[in-house]
Amino acid sequence: MRERERRRLPIVPVIAPWVVILALCGCKPSATDPTTPGAETPPMDVSTVTVVATTIPRILDLPGRLASTRVAEVRAQVSGIIQQRTFEEGSLVGKGDVLFQIDPAIYRAELDARTAAVAKAEATRVQAQRQSERTETLVERQAASTAQNDIAVATLRQAEADVASTKAQLARARIDLDFATVRAPIAGRIGRALITEGALVGGTDATKLAVIQQIDPIFADFNASASDPGRLTERAAGKEATEVRLVRADGSSYPDAGRLLFTDVGVDPGTGQVSLRATFPNPKAALLPGTYVRVRVPQGMKADAVIVPAQAIQRSSAGEAQAYVVEAGKTALRPLRTGGLTDAGWIVEEGLKAGETVVVEGFQKIQPGMAVNPVAWTGGRTAAAPEPH
């Protein structure tokens, strides 16, 4: 028994060192473990474009609002009950089309009365004229006095005046009867009816029945800074034809080009801006009055323009433009001063120069000073290839 214990005792010191070595190896951190604080994270991929200088059309992009060429409020000019509405709301109407019918019975009766009054006045005039002729003959024969002749002449003139007065009243009665049929004063698109059949309208307060707007062509009213170059005043005066373009509220371009009409003669002292107006064809009524739009006025060509995609431009809390630029493999947030917006992106007036790399996509997960891996952006046209207007 004791001999067996002596034989086993030397095995213990041989096994113990190996256990310690294995325990130490298991506790040693791996250099390739990504959770280890000392491990390096690979740079994040970001989509970028390289800025190049190019020549583009110089365009003034100005906010404006559409307005009707002509607006006519259809009003009742005589009093009465509306018997009928003869138009469809929202439809196109022509000048002179019948829109409403006011009860004409009272105006027909008035017309008949005035017609009878004219006939009576004519009969009185004829009698006075014959009496004047007889009196004149008697005066020549010295059978009547001059005073009698004067009375006959005055009676004739009074009868003639009565005839003129009754004819004027007859004409007024015809006008009132005609006004009982309400017609369109201009051609255009009519809105909803503001009254219904059976409603009483008055001529003294000129009740408004509907509104007609002529929208083909349509006006675009907009403002420009008085310091903007481009000789807009001369162009609007007709010395130089100026073609303008329209951008709708959803960002789409209106296919038909417009024409600059005029610029106001004075500058608003409060805003330092001048009012302008352009006209656009609108045969399909795709443009509606009151809509906010943007009017693009060409101002020649701009050389060495720096353009970046619209996605690359961010706005600070103060509303200032800024973008991420990759310098030596790291990001830097650069403040910018932008100009107009083109089809290729924003024109950068200050803050960028040709040859610099701008982050277009992926900047939501980066911070200034972070190492990144620039990848060519393929999401759209680059700043090097703007399309001319």
Account of the protein in words:
Belongs to the membrane fusion protein (MFP) (TC 8.A.1) family. It is found in: Cell envelope. Residues 113-179 form the Multidrug resistance protein MdtA-like alpha-helical hairpin domain. The protein is of the alpha+beta class. The protein has helices spanning 2-8, 11-27, 105-140, 146-179, 232-236, and strands at 44-50, 53-67, 70-75, 80-85, 92-93, 98-102, 181-183, 188-190, 200-201, 208-214, 218-225, 243-247, 258-263, 273-280, 292-308, 314-315, 321-327, 330-335, 337-341, 346-350, 357-361, 372-376. The protein has 4 domains: 46-58 and 302-376, conserved putative lor/sdh protein from methanococcus maripaludis s2 fold (Beta Barrel); 61-69 and 213-299, Efflux pump adaptor protein, beta barrel domain (Elongation Factor Tu (Ef-tu), domain 3, Beta Barrel), CATH 2.40.30.170; 72-101 and 183-212, OB fold (Dihydrolipoamide Acetyltransferase, E2P) (Beta Barrel); 104-179, Orthogonal Bundle (Helix Hairpins), CATH 1.10.287. 25% of the residues lie in helices and 35% in strands. Helix 3 (105-140) packs antiparallel against helix 4 (146-179).
Helices and strands in order, then pairings?
Layout: H1 2-8, H2 11-27, E1 44-50, E2 53-67, E3 70-75, E4 80-85, E5 92-93, E6 98-102, H3 105-140, H4 146-179, E7 181-183, E8 188-190, E9 200-201, E10 208-214, E11 218-225, H5 232-236, E12 243-247, E13 258-263, E14 273-280, E15 292-308, E16 314-315, E17 321-327, E18 330-335, E19 337-341, E20 346-350, E21 357-361, E22 372-376
Parallel strand pairs: 1-22
Antiparallel strand pairs: 1-21, 2-11, 2-15, 3-10, 4-6, 4-9, 5-8, 6-7, 8-10, 11-14, 12-13, 12-15, 13-14, 15-20, 16-17, 17-18, 17-21, 19-20
Helix pairs in contact: 3-4
